[in-house]
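Now for a sample.
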Amino acid sequence: MDGWADVVASNYHQILFKENGNIFSEFYQIDNYSYSLDNGKWLRLHTSQLSPFLMSSDLAQVMDTNVYQNDGQVLGKEIINGKVIIIYTYTTIFKSFNRINQTRLWVEQSSGLPIRVEKRNELGYLQFMTITYDENLRIILLDEIKNTPY
């Protein structure tokens, strides 16, 4: 599974997930609304609706069952597009799902911002996301997305 995240500011970004070249999940955050495509239907939420979910006891319980091992390390540095990138690796154990992810994280040294994340689980399934930051990016939502009831 491939993922792309374009970030303009904390209140303006898009995330697309593709598998075999086809987009299967989309998420947009624009100002006070988030829009997500789930099973072919769009869902719109005001950011005030996200907070109760993010603070719910169910989510807290799930987070408490995850163990982040203290095995993080720096793998090295490389140059990408003329910028120094630091590559980190760490393991995440999800006890509640009986899953282990090995993660590599590429971080631009000068800004401290992540530009790529790659996760591989114990079954060998690879998932990665490339993250770009563009102050000139403008996301234009289709009317069917903008007019989604919440």
Summary: The helical segments are 47-54, 57-64, 143-146. The CA atoms of residues 13 and 73 lie 29 Å apart. The radius of gyration is 17 Å. Residues 51-56 have pLDDT under 50 and may be disordered.
